[in-house]
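Handout, section B. The chain below has 149 residues.
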Amino acid sequence: MARMDLERRRIWAAAAVGALLLLAGIAGCGVKGPPVPPQRPPLPAVEALTGRLDGDTVTLNWRHNPDAKGVAGYVVLRAQSDPAQPPCPDCPVVYQRAGTINADKHSRQITFSEPVPAGFRYTYLVRALGAAGDQGPEKASVEIDRTER
C-alpha cells in the first residue's frame, strides 16, 4: 500500500511539472515573433553638393554636420557615360565607388578630388556612410562634362 502511494505521488508530481512547463511555454515572456534589431536613426542626406572641373581633376564639395548621429564617413560614387552612345531613359545609372572619406568632427566642409580621363560625362553621387556600412539616402548628384577638354 505504501508502495502504491509512492507511485501515485510520482505520477502526480510528473503531471504537475509537465503542466507547469506547458503553462510557462504558453505564457512566455511577451509577444512572440522574430527578433528585432535595435533601431538606429536614419543617416542624413548630403547637403550642398557641388562639383567643378579644373584641368583634368574633378573636385566635389559638400557640407558636413558634425552633430549628425551615426555618420562615420562618406562614400563617393561615380557613373561614367559615353556621349557618342545615345542615352537610355529607362536604364538604371550604374555607379562605381570612387572613394571613401572619413568624417572629420572638426570640419563642416568635405572635399573629394580625383583625376578623370577626357571624352566622358561623369555623374557623382555622395552618400553618408554609417559604421556598419549602411548608406544614407540619395538626394542630389553632380554632373561633370569632360567631353571637350
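Note. Strands lie at 47-54, 57-63, 73-81, 96-102, 109-115, 120-129, 141-146. Compare this with the example in section A.
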